Amino acid sequence: MACKAFKFAPPKDVISSMPDNVATHILDRLPVQDAVKTSILSRNWRFKWTLLSQLVFDENFLKYLAKRNGVSKFGRIISRLLLHLKGTITKFVLSIDKRSYSALDDEDIAYWILFLSRKGVEDLTITKTNGEALNLPAHLFSCLELKHLKLRYCFFKPPTSFHGFPKLLNLELDLLDFETDKFGEFITQCPLLEILNMRNQHHLLETSSMDYYFSVRQSKTS
After folding, report:
1. Is the entire prediction scored with pTM above 0.85?
2. pLDDT value for 181
3. 37, 48, 139, 164: which one has the fewest Cβ atoms less than 10 Å from its Cβ?
């Protein structure tokens, strides 16, 4: 009896055939530097990292650069990376210390925020840990898709053309410097705001050194 020849199908390359939405889901859960490294997985993954929708440039990213003597290129690295991204960016975290700030200027940050405002960013964190307070670019107030905003050690001055964040739900402010008479107006321009956390605000209270914290939870109106 003749033996039948069996044909075995080659194993399917699951990684290379992964849908873009699944790949993005995975990439968004990796540190930025590791997400970029996935370009070596296969030819189809060479540019998958450009689908990133969440970018976190925090203390861990700065430590990664420091180990490779790359802190001096901090601003250039972020700018080049943003230029390659293709889709919506839903989350952006930027942590700046004295060392990294020396490698960028206010124009770099203004460009990044302008870029994010056009990418529909919903969750934005900008923190500065030391040195002089950061001048927030006016483009920040064009990020109208924002739902979560966290700012630390910044000058906060909305332009006169600003009419509010219509979708903002959560606002965290720490060591912010702003005009007292403007803050109440700003809050009224965020109609969906549910949570407001504030610490160490300057010019909000008569004693700027006083530690001030409160949380407001506003019931959603039907």
Report:
1. no
2. 67
3. 37
